[in-house]
Amino acid sequence: MSAVDLATSSVRDLNSALHGLAADSNDTSWTIDNPDGAHAIAVGLDAPLEVTINGHVGYYCAGMNKTANVTVNGHTGWGIAENMMSGTVRVTGNASQAAGATGHGGLLVIEGDAGHRCGISMKGIDIVVKGSIGHFGAFMGQAGNLVVAGDVGENLGDSLYEARIYVRGKVASLGADCVEKDMGPEHRATLKDLLARAGVDADPKDFRRYGSARRLYHFNVDHADAY
Amino acid sequence: MCGIVGLFIKNPELSDSLGDHLTTMLIGMTERGPDSAGIAVYHHERADDTAKLTLFHADTHYRWRELGGDMGEALGVETDVEVKDNHAVVAVFGGDEAGARAWLKATHPEVRVMGYGRTMEVYKDMGKPADVAEKFGVRKMTGTHGIGHTRMATESAVTTEHSHPFTAAADICLVHNGSLASPNRLRKWLERRGMEFETDNDTEVAARYFAFRMGEGATLDEALEAGLKDLDGFYTFCLGTRDGFAVLRDPISCKPAVLAETDDWVAMASEFRSIAHLPGVKNASIWEPAPATLYTWSLEGRA
Amino acid sequence: MTVDPRKLQRSATFPPEVIAEIQRQADQGIYSIRGSGAKRPLPSFDDLVFLGASTSRYPLEGYREACATNVVIGTRFAKKPIELKIPITIAGMSFGALGAHAKEALGLAATAMGTSTTTGDGGMTQEERGSSKTLVYQLLPSRYGMNPDDLRRADAIEVVVGQGAKPGGGGMLLGQKINARVAGMRTLPQGIDQRSACRHPDWTGPDDLTIKIQELREITDWQKPIYIKIGATRVAFDIALCVKAGADAIVLDGMQGGTAATQDVFIEHVGIPTLPAVRAAVEALQDLDMHRKVQLIVSGGIRTGADAAKALALGADAVSIGMAALIALGCNKPVYLEDYHALGTEPGYCHHCHTGRCPVGVTTQFPELEERLVPEQGARWLQNYLTTMVMEVQTLARACGKGHVNNLEPEDMVALTVEAAAMAGVPLAGTKWIPGRM
Predict the structure, then answer these.
(1) Which of B100, B118, B136 is the last residue of a domain?
(2) Neighbours of A19 (CB within 10 A)
(3) How far is C21 from chain B (nearest CA, A)?
(4) 144-163 in C: which are within 8 Å (CB) of A?
(5) Would you say the C-alpha torsion B29, B33, B35, B39 has a positive or negative sign?
(6) What letter does residue C188 receive in the DSSP assignment?
(7) How many Cβ atoms from other residues are within 10 Å of residue C287's Cβ?
(8) Which secondary-structure segment (H or E) carries C41?
């Protein structure tokens, strides 16, 4: 167990230490105190570490995470788990904008609310939000699942590719080319699994599914106003 | 571009440390704005019929007391002058700040009016936030609320005048993080309607736009709502008013903003790290303001 | 009855090309999308000439008296700056826009010449990492294929704010070029038209870019130089903001810069030419006392050693070539004429990269076309071209008495037109006049 106090040491030293662990190291459990809104905490992790951060973090915490499990006991700034490849990132508080942006894999769980552009350009990441999200959720989402147990702001799924969106609460409006779709048994099974892994107690039957209408896949002059 | 901060004291016992906390918040935004910094502080220490003008001249030996005396003579009132480095706060007893400003414009065009009103003082200058705060003794300032700004100049020059806050009207000033897309068109439109500009800075355009709307009879809230339609661009605005402050983000909201509130204070900043050291922050409710939504706090709302 | 050609009165407002385009739009209801850069005549380096040696300045002997060409990029913050043997790099071009053979050829040639190549909007391929000894990895708004392993394997990172062909526009790749491999790398369905974002997903503005750059440095342990690439628009402001955001180097791409696919209206009407951009950028760096401390790499229509030498003389640390490198690989070569005709074009006029039916196998994903470009042969062509370019630069530098190509300075040149004099900030030939300055 290693403990780091960011009130007295630097983010740079912390990341350096985390990156420098030998592949067979058993120093895999880390606690970080007093983040106080610092940026780029625990970024670029590349080992199955357990990292717990006590407090609020700034931007890009756990950016480009691979295989590690990171927990933030607090709120996050922009881009939590941005471009994550694998592993798990859990936020007990709220996440700000661009949560899980461009993520390729792994699971991001937000127990509070997430801000705008949650899952923007997602490329395979799974994001489960217990609370609500802001506008332009899953903007240009290419792959992966976005699950929101609360409400959703304007322009959900604008310009969506193949990412799937499941919402339990209200959706203020749908973005270009995003439509409600049928929930089949395979969708409910996926959703059930995601909710279980996220530790969110909710019934898949209460959710609706949204996806791309695929009308923007080839330019058509009659859809020009959707671009 | 910039970092912005705002602090509103709900618990009067904290008023003495307003400047201390504002300075810490400002320094937290240094990386966002290394070029220049500014703050507006609101204290109600003068009688209600005393106006204050914060003035600037680059020469730290400028003869402020003489100016204060001449102004008093010309207007037939008592004045009082307090000098802080290259700024001076001139108190005008009897409250005729419009007359004072008109007199300054006619007789002392070399002096810049940074702010005016009953309670507001505005200090801004080039340099790192910590140095600017030190220069004007911000840490020791007391008051009910204040806003601040650290600048990374985008399109206009780094000068004292181009720094924020920009004063829109008596006791109302503005700090801005973002970039207006059509400031020139709007500037010309306002100039044709009698507004005068001191810089080519887009934030000045926003400040004078709000001043124009309020001059036409709009309340501050109405002016800000009109701004959502007329101001094109990405912005987070924080405005200081006589009684409080207001926060507004554009509908797309690509520039950051964090709000935090406890029983003792309300704080706003571009990044959480400026709020991270305020007393009691561990129990604060922390949230992000929604786009195109006006948030206001007022002293009248305090217990 | 024959038409007397002398009686045909051409309209400058509605020439045949404009008429054809209006009628094509009427038919199809879509803007014209094409490859290549701005095609219309623009003030350029052609309008500058060097003042060679005279009675007051003395030349260096060719061959025996050295004229060094090496340059180091990224000295400001990175632990491992990039050392280039020549001041010419290969610009960012995506796998997807280009085929794998082209990417491999670029890498082989660059390695042989001691310079770098750059990935593009599709991410890093094994071929390019394998063939290119020094590889710059782009971070674009789309983030297609972005991953930390490639970030760590790269030699430098280039944050793309914009490119000269379309400052303010995102990447574009049409369905016929999105084959299984490209689709897999970009996480897109095969065969669809790719829509790309024009802004980065997790930051907007230089204040937030500062924080993003810090994150990239933290992920890569501060080893690698971070470049910022901008399309030439408000150059003076942009350069200052790139410096303040923490760039090690800045890549500045003028409007002649190419693309494999973008709207013609964007290419021809947005951004400023490379010529005025360079001087504005250098002066902005000098104002911040950052010239030569934050390196400036200039691209956008660099074609010859003369262009390169003039950019260096104006203050650039290096230049970057895109289209010119593809032309060395065979782009617009007069071969396979029937394939050019099938596209409705001729060699020398072709800008049909967006179709994927490149007759010479460069900007294509179709195997039967791609095999027309043999990587080793392409590499040899490019290497020859780069060698010649460098020799041209050295020839000009030696004629001006310089022991290193970076010692060329603006005062070594004059302009042949008033526009070029104003844009480059050098006197009109035979006069002392720099319009706008004195």
Answers:
(1) B118
(2) 17
(3) 31
(4) 144, 146-149, 151-152
(5) negative
(6) -
(7) 13
(8) none
Please name the member of C204, C208, C237 whose beta carbon is closest to the beta carbon of B154. C237
User: Helical H runs in C79-166?
Assistant: 100-113, 126-131, 148-153
Report CA-CA distances (Å) from C24 to C29, C175, C193, C352, C356: 8, 21, 20, 16, 21
Domain co-membership, B240 together with B101 = no
Do B214 and B175 sit in the same domain of this protein?
yes
In the sheet where B258-261 sits, what is the strand order?
B120-126, B36-42, B145-151, B2-9, B265-269, B258-261, B285-287
Let me know the angle formed at the C-alpha of C189 by C184 and C191, rounded to the nearest 5 degrees: 105
Task: Kindly state the tokens that stand for B130.
Answer: 């910590």
The closest alpha carbon to B54, from B123, B104, B4, B149, belongs to B123
Do residue B229 and residue B135 come from a single domain? yes
Torsion, Cα A19 A23 A29 A33, to 10 degrees, reads -10
Task: Give the start-to-end residue ranges of the domains of chain C.
Answer: 58-329+373-407
Q: How many domains does chain B contain in total?
A: 2
Strands of chain B (E only): list them.
2-9, 36-42, 50-56, 79-84, 87-93, 112-117, 120-126, 145-151, 166-169, 172-180, 233-240, 244-249, 258-261, 265-269, 285-287, 295-298
pLDDT tens across the length of chain C (438 residues): 899 999 999 999 999 999 999 999 999 888 898 999 999 999 999 999 999 888 888 888 877 778 899 999 999 999 999 999 999 999 999 999 999 999 999 999 999 999 999 999 989 999 899 999 999 999 999 999 999 999 999 999 999 999 999 998 888 888 888 999 999 999 999 999 998 889 999 999 999 999 999 999 999 999 999 999 999 999 999 999 999 999 999 999 999 999 988 999 999 999 999 999 999 999 999 999 999 999 999 999 999 999 999 999 999 999 999 999 999 999 999 999 999 999 999 999 999 998 999 999 999 999 999 999 999 999 999 999 999 999 999 999 999 999 899 999 999 999 999 999 999 999 999 999 999 886
pTM, to two decimals:
0.93
**Can you read off the two tokens belonging to residue C147?**
């991953």
Domain containing B71 — which CATH number?
3.30.70.260
Q: Which residue of C has its CA nearest to A38?
A: C211
B238 is catalytic: no
Contact B256 A78 (CB under 8 A): yes
Query: Of C152, C94, C154, C150, nearest to C122 (Cα)?
Result: C94
The CA-atom distances, in angstroms, between C60 and each of B39, C305, C397, C400 are: 59, 17, 8, 8
User: Which two three-digit tokens encode residue C51?
Assistant: 């003042």
A&C contacts, CB < 8 Å: 106
Closest Cβ–Cβ partner in C199, C207, C234 for B1: C207
User: Cα distance from C141 to chain A (closest Cα, Å)?
Assistant: 9
Other C-beta atoms closer than 10 Å to the C-beta of A86 total 17
Q: Does B256 touch chain A (CB under 8 A)?
A: yes
Q: Please check whether residue C287 touches B, CB under 8 A.
A: no
Of B64, B96, B118, the position where a domain reaches its end is: B118
| Helix/strand/coil for C433 | coil
Q: What is the C-alpha to C-alpha distance for residues C319 and C248, in angstroms, rounded to an integer?
A: 16
Among the four given CATH numbers 3.30.70.2190, 3.40.50.150, 3.30.565.10, 3.20.20.70, the one describing domain C58-329+373-407: 3.20.20.70
- One DSSP character per residue, C42-91 reads ---GGGEEE----SSS-PPPTTTS--B--EEE-TTT-SS-EEESSSEEEP
Residues C113 and C282: their CA atoms lie apart, in Å, by 27
For helices C375-399 and C100-113, the axis angle rounded to 10 degrees is 40
Q: Which residue has the tokens 């881009």?
A: A79
Q: Rounded to an integer, what distance in angstroms lies between the CA atom of residue B302 and that of residue C12?
A: 70
d(CA B129, CA C235): 27
Pick A120's closest partner by Cβ from C201, C211, C220: C201
The CB density around residue A202, as the number of other CB atoms within 10 Å, is 17
